[in-house]
Automatic annotation (TrEMBL), chain A:
<feature type="transmembrane region" description="Helical">
    <location>
        <begin position="209"/>
        <end position="230"/>
    </location>
</feature>
<dbReference type="InterPro" id="IPR000515">
    <property type="entry name" value="MetI-like"/>
</dbReference>
<feature type="transmembrane region" description="Helical">
    <location>
        <begin position="169"/>
        <end position="188"/>
    </location>
</feature>
<dbReference type="InterPro" id="IPR035906">
    <property type="entry name" value="MetI-like_sf"/>
</dbReference>
<dbReference type="InterPro" id="IPR050809">
    <property type="entry name" value="UgpAE/MalFG_permease"/>
</dbReference>
<protein>
    <submittedName>
        <fullName>Putative aldouronate transport system permease protein</fullName>
    </submittedName>
</protein>
<dbReference type="Pfam" id="PF00528">
    <property type="entry name" value="BPD_transp_1"/>
</dbReference>
UniProtKB/TrEMBL annotation, chain B:
<keyword id="KW-1003">Cell membrane</keyword>
<feature type="transmembrane region" description="Helical">
    <location>
        <begin position="112"/>
        <end position="131"/>
    </location>
</feature>
<dbReference type="InterPro" id="IPR035906">
    <property type="entry name" value="MetI-like_sf"/>
</dbReference>
<keyword id="KW-0812">Transmembrane</keyword>
<comment type="similarity">
    <text>Belongs to the binding-protein-dependent transport system permease family.</text>
</comment>
<feature type="transmembrane region" description="Helical">
    <location>
        <begin position="143"/>
        <end position="166"/>
    </location>
</feature>
<dbReference type="InterPro" id="IPR000515">
    <property type="entry name" value="MetI-like"/>
</dbReference>
UniProtKB/TrEMBL annotation, chain C:
<keyword id="KW-0813">Transport</keyword>
<dbReference type="Pfam" id="PF01547">
    <property type="entry name" value="SBP_bac_1"/>
</dbReference>
<dbReference type="InterPro" id="IPR050490">
    <property type="entry name" value="Bact_solute-bd_prot1"/>
</dbReference>
<dbReference type="GO" id="GO:0030313">
    <property type="term" value="C:cell envelope"/>
</dbReference>
<feature type="region of interest" description="Disordered">
    <location>
        <begin position="28"/>
        <end position="48"/>
    </location>
</feature>
<dbReference type="InterPro" id="IPR006059">
    <property type="entry name" value="SBP"/>
</dbReference>
<keyword id="KW-0732">Signal</keyword>
Length: 296, 296, 565
């Protein structure tokens, strides 16, 4: 193959992007040293005293630390699972629909929330789930007691997960729909001739046809295990649900910027990055091992 | 026999359509709610009396909105940010994805570089060092701070997506071109990019939605409201303030000024542009997002 | 080759981007500050005009909803900044501006990155942080030489507390504000029309308060036939269960009155039985008060949505709430809209409930909550002081209708500690005819008193000694009504009641608090909220006390003891 000498062109292609990333991603990482300092803003990062692992020791004495890590992982994993399954089910249902116009319209409507920011959706959700809001009025019609949805620590993670799935499912549905349209129609015809009904076709033709897509999506989303959604939770939570709803990113934000605990915020952030890096490496190798496919 | 089958099938259709339509309905709710809030009277909104229909229907808030020059300034900044951010993303992503889609055999440095990218995606130094860096570059109050910082944090994911698409392009095309003596630049620009419009449209859409909805960096890097992008501008309107840090006359001014209907009108207008983008990109990204797995 | 050209054009585009970005003007502060000869040689004149224009770059709060500026004025060019320029020859610039909700965040960012404006307004926590980091100028001499007599008088009226709060190692590190002491007392506000309708009296004790709340919830006081009323409002997401020693004022919809009546002062540093400081939140009285609140919540007497609502004022405006605790100025808050919404909503204010001995024992606040600090190397630290002198001396000259007072640079509130009480008494005397408005013209420290006594008859209807809502003319002059109602209804209980108030031993942080307080406070807030709302048993309190002590509380208590002695 005549690809000798291509490498230097490859490097050239990468130059602009890497310059960008070095300037705006790697240079600011000097701040990581704050985690090992007793940071004095007056002296800055380069003048502050180093204290070794002091901050990390303190971090592990705090109940909060384990708690926010647990919350983050719990919420993120539920989101990952939900965001895989719900759109799949929805896509399958939509795929069964034979009125093309209706199919299009529904498909176009359900992606709508994906495009709205949590700044906007947060306020709307809080209103809808309020104590005297529409949802509780609906429950009241069935004779049920109103529920203080966003004030219940036991419900909060599920509301977060549920609203995230609701926001994103339409968008993910599109991915599955595309995979579904890629299935060879001849397979359905053959199944029809064999006398298969709708359910059997679903099981034997449709599902195997989109297996690869599902696996790939699952693997890609593993990188998000420590990203439970800052924007969303930031706009939805309150002190009542800190115990189950506070995630690493919201905690770091409050500690670092609002409460002036720079060292602690940096240390927790660093821990998050390290764990995230391990997880993504793990999923990379697992995906390679099981599907023989390198995701990046 | 045939008839009863189609009857049960029709029943299934009805159930299906009902479920799908209900789900689709919930997706319009936030838009609808915001609209009816924006068309209600100030007092009704302050009392939380607005649910699904406007109370004391009027257009006052939209008339007021027309006089708010800052809203339109911020709107324009957001448009600029989206154009620059998505444009830059569109250029850099294929430039980086192409060499990185090669195997180690073709491009020796590939793995190290790839893992460096993954590293930049996961690690960061925290907000304060980022702020210092941007200030050091002289980018405070510049739209480039928003474009470049936000872009650097989202581009790696887009690159991974594009790498996967590139890898699934038919190998035979590239081989034929190589036989004809084509160089890497020719292959990228004349072969890969034209074939990859779906995935590039997809990552552009991601980029557009991200830049339109992101609010935190506007808050951090802009020292004055006149430089705020739209979501930052909206965020400062909808966030509630802790009165204990205020004096009585600050609170007085604030509550005199509070205007939920006007806020709702602003939010409603802010939702519109990003919803308009989708139909234009829809036909591309259905294919782009499937990572090429369809054809397997 | 074709592709090479493309490479270069792309690289060129990238570098053009970077270049364009780098060449953008940066709004730095330092370069703009002119080199002036030191002012030390001049005689100190609190109102002295500089010979040459100096600039001061400040952090400024700007409310995005404030549309009061007229005729092309901007937050940087308006009647206030022009006044400062003309009178003092000081050019004001903005290092940053931020909305009220984001101002604290901008200040934190400025501190953390050591990228400070020449001067700005900060709170006590930030002040301490900046002193520790050695970022701000020692203003001892500036204060002594440049503070105007009027400001000194007001600051001294706090009995030394204001200066104590800004004195570190014997040095004055910031200029304190001084606000009306009435801000720190949280009255009980009640819908008197509901009381009348149900034939009830204002509740004297916590027990009676429970009964009133029960009646409000169960007996349909608004007469709409629906079960939609709230007995006692609870805090929303931006308020607290009770005011604490750091944020001791203006807590809306908290339970301050109930805690105080049970002699529980959570969030306050008290003198313990052994004479040593002790933290109010860990005392048995607090556990008892929590158990009372817990019962009230479970019986449905307290807003079920407490702690979750974005704004508890909403249900007051809509007429669903019957009682809440809040400072005298609630007419400035939701009450205006509440009355507009329902002209019969007769909100009255009481110094209740009383303790077991029949005394009113609220917690009292510090009168100093905001501070002006000056960057360490700023050449003209006295400029900040002069700007404040200028404000107090000329505040009445400004016209708020062409630009709200918030646009005054470095604005701090200067009000005598007894401002509201004096106003209330004066208004009563004028209404009763025992004094004439002119009798109050010569009290310049009470800035609004003249306009208050002049306009009282515009908004108060006869009989002049009945403060029920139907005897007010709200439509005539809303702004004046708000103020007069805040005085004659909101402040009246403070004038008429003997207040056996409780102060915190300190109102500022100690060293260990900087690192630990946030987490301790979070522990406290969460535990107490959950106990009240019934998601944790009452005995979670005991575990809290243990955790609190262990996670730094004990160390902090020792530090407080040192600070006090």
């Amino acid at each position: 193959m005549k690809t000798k000498g291509f490498a230097k062109h490859y490097y050239l292609m990468l130059v602009p992007g890497f310059v960008w990333l070095i300037l705006f991603s790697i240079v600011p990482m000097f701040g990581i040293v704050i985690a090992f300092q007793s940071y004095n803003p007056g002296q800055g990062v380069f003048g502050s005293e180093f204290v070794g692992l002091e901050t990390f020791k303190y971090m592990f004495t705090l109940n909060d630390t384990m708690n926010v890590f647990y919350n983050t992982i719990f919420i993120a994993i539920m989101k990952i699972i939900g965001n895989l399954i719900v759109p799949l089910v929805f896509a399958l249902m939509l795929n069964e629909l034979r009125y093309i116009g209706l199919k299009r319209s529904i498909q176009t409507i359900v992606y709508l929330p994906h495009f709205l920011s949590w700044v906007i959706l947060g306020g709307v959700l809080l209103d809808i789930f309020a104590y005297q809001g529409p949802i509780n009025q609906l429950l009241g019609m069935f004779g049920m007691e109103p529920v203080l949805f966003f004030g219940r620590a036991d419900l909060f993670p599920f509301l977060v997960v549920g609203s995230d799935i609701w926001k994103e499912f339409g968008f993910n549905t599109i991915i599955y729909l595309a995979a579904l349209t890629g299935i060879n129609p001849a397979l359905y015809e053959a199944a029809g001739i064999d006398g298969a009904n709708r359910l059997k076709m679903l099981w034997h033709v449709t599902l195997p046809g989109i297996r690869t897509t599902a696996v790939l999506l699952a693997v890609l989303s593993l990188g998000n295990v420590l990203n439970a959604g800052f924007d969303q939770i930031f706009n939805l939570y309150n002190p009542l649900v800190y115990s189950t709803g506070d995630i690493i990113d919201t905690w770091v934000y409050r500690a670092g910027l609002l409460n002036l605990q720079y060292e602690l915020a940096t240390a927790v952030g660093l821990l998050k990055s390290v764990v995230g890096f391990i997880l993504i490496s793990l999923s990379y190798y697992l995906a390679y091992k099981f599907t023989n496919y390198r995701i990046f | 026999m045939l008839r009863s089958k189609s009857l049960s099938s029709r029943m299934a259709d009805i159930v299906l359509i009902t479920i799908l339509a209900l789900v689709a309905l919930t997706c319009i709710l936030p838009l609808w709610y915001t609209l009816s809030l924006s068309l209600s009277s100030k007092t009704a909104a302050a009392a939380g009396a607005v649910a699904l229909w406007p109370v004391d229907f009027n257009f006052d808030s939209y008339k007021q909105l027309l006089q708010d020059s800052q809203f339109f300034k911020s709107f324009w900044i957001s448009i600029q940010r989206v154009v620059l951010g998505a444009g830059l993303n569109f250029i850099i992503v294929p430039l980086m994805a192409y060499p990185l889609s090669k195997t180690v055999k073709d491009f020796k440095g590939r793995n190290v570089l790839m893992w460096t990218l993954i590293f930049t995606m996961l690690f960061n130094g925290g907000l304060i060092p980022l702020y210092l860096t941007i200030k050091g570059y002289g980018l405070m109050n510049s739209i480039w701070a928003l474009v470049l910082v936000g872009g650097a944090q989202t581009i790696v994911f887009n690159i991974i997506l594009t790498i996967n698409f590139f890898r699934n392009l038919p190998k035979s095309l590239e081989e034929a071109a190589l036989v004809d003596g084509a160089g890497p630049w020719y292959i990228l620009f004349k072969l890969y990019i034209p074939l990859s419009i779906p995935v590039l449209a997809t990552v552009s859409l991601f980029s557009i939605v991200y830049h339109w909805n992101e609010f935190l960096y506007g808050l951090i890097f802009m020292t004055r409201e006149e430089f705020y992008p739209l979501q930052t501008y909206i965020q400062q309107l909808v966030v509630s303030v802790d009165p204990s840090t205020m004096t009585e006359d600050q609170y007085k001014r604030m509550s005199e000024l509070s205007n939920r209907t006007l806020d709702a009108a602003k939010i409603f207008i802010a939702m519109i542009p990003v919803l308009l983008v989708y139909p234009f990109l829809q036909k591309y990204f259905i294919h782009g997002i499937t990572l090429g797995s369809v054809k397997e | 080759m074709d592709s090479k050209k493309k490479l270069w054009s792309i690289l060129a585009i990238i570098f053009f981007f970077v270049l364009a970005a780098c060449s953008n003007e940066e709004t730095t502060v330092e370069e703009d500050a002119e080199e002036n000869p030191p002012t030390a040689s001049e005689p100190a004149d609190p109102f002295g005009k500089y010979d040459e224009t100096i600039t001061i770059a400040i952090g400024q709060e700007v409310d995005p909803s404030d549309t009061s500026l007229q005729d092309g004025d901007t937050p940087l060019d308006n009647q206030y900044t022009r006044h400062v320029k003309e009178n003092l020859n000081i050019e004001v610039e903005h290092a940053f501006t931020a909305s009220p909700s984001n101002y604290d965040q901008k200040v934190s960012l400025a501190i953390a990155s050591n990228d400070l404006p020449d001067a700005m307004v900060v709170g006590p926590v930030e002040l301490r942080q900046m002193v520790e980091a050695d970022q701000i100028a020692d203003l001892t001499e500036i204060y002594e030489n440049y503070a105007s007599p009027a400001i000194k008088e007001i600051i001294d009226s706090s009995g030394g507390v204001a200066l104590d709060n800004v004195t570190f190692d014997g040095k004055i590190m910031a200029i304190p504000n001084s606000q009306a002491g009435a801000d720190g007392v949280h009255n009980l506000w009640i819908r008197k029309d509901w009381l009348d309708k149900l034939g009830l009296e204002p509740p004297q004790t916590v027990e009676e308060l429970k009964e009133v709340a029960r009646a409000f919830v169960e007996e349909d006081p608004d007469g709409n036939g629906e079960d939609d009323t709230i007995g006692l409002a609870g805090p929303d997401t931006s308020n607290k269960l009770y005011a604490n020693f750091i944020e001791s004022t203006n807590n809306l919809y908290g339970f301050d009155g109930i805690f105080s009546a049970l002699h529980s002062y959570p969030g306050y540093w008290l003198e313990g039985e052994d004479g040593n400081p002790v933290y109010g939140s860990i005392l048995p009285e607090t556990k008892e008060a929590l158990s009372v609140l817990r019962d009230m919540y479970s019986e449905g007497l307290i807003d079920a949505e407490m702690g979750v609502r974005e704004d508890s004022g909403e249900s007051i405006i809509s007429g669903n709430t019957g009682m809440f605790f809040g400072p005298f100025w609630m007419p400035y808050g939701p009450l205006t809209d509440a009355v507009k919404n329902n002209p019969d909503a007769n909100w009255q204010s009481y110094a209740l409930p009383l303790d077991a001995n029949g005394e009113y024992t609220p917690h009292l606040s510090t009168t100093t909550t905001q501070f002006v600090v000056v960057r360490k190397d700023y050449e003209h630290p006295e400029a900040a002081m002069k700007i404040l002198n200028n404000l107090l001396a000329n505040e009445s000259e400004f016209d708020p209708s062409i630009g709200g007072p918030g646009y005054y640079p470095l604005r701090l509130v200067y009000a005598p500690a007894d401002e509201m009480e004096v106003t209330t008494v004066a208004l009563r005397e004028v209404l009763a005819g025992t004094k004439q408005p002119e009798d109050f013209y010569d009290m310049p420290a009470y800035k609004l008193l003249k306009s208050d006594v002049d306009t009282i008859f515009d908004v108060k209807l006869e009989p002049y000694d009945n403060m029920d809502i139907q005897y007010w003319d709200i439509e005539n002059h809303l702004g004046q009504w708000t103020r007069a109602y805040s005085a004659l209804v909101g402040t009246a209980p403070l004038v008429d009641t003997e207040i056996k108030g409780v102060k915190s031993l300190i109102y500022s942080q100690t060293k260990t608090m900087e690192d630990r307080w946030v987490n301790l406070k979070k522990l406290e807030d969460e535990t107490f909220l959950k106990i009240i709302m019934g998601t944790e048993p009452l005995d979670a309190f005991d575990q809290f006390v243990e955790d609190w002590k262990q996670q730094g509380g004990d160390t902090i208590t020792e530090e407080v003891a040192e600070a006090v002695n």
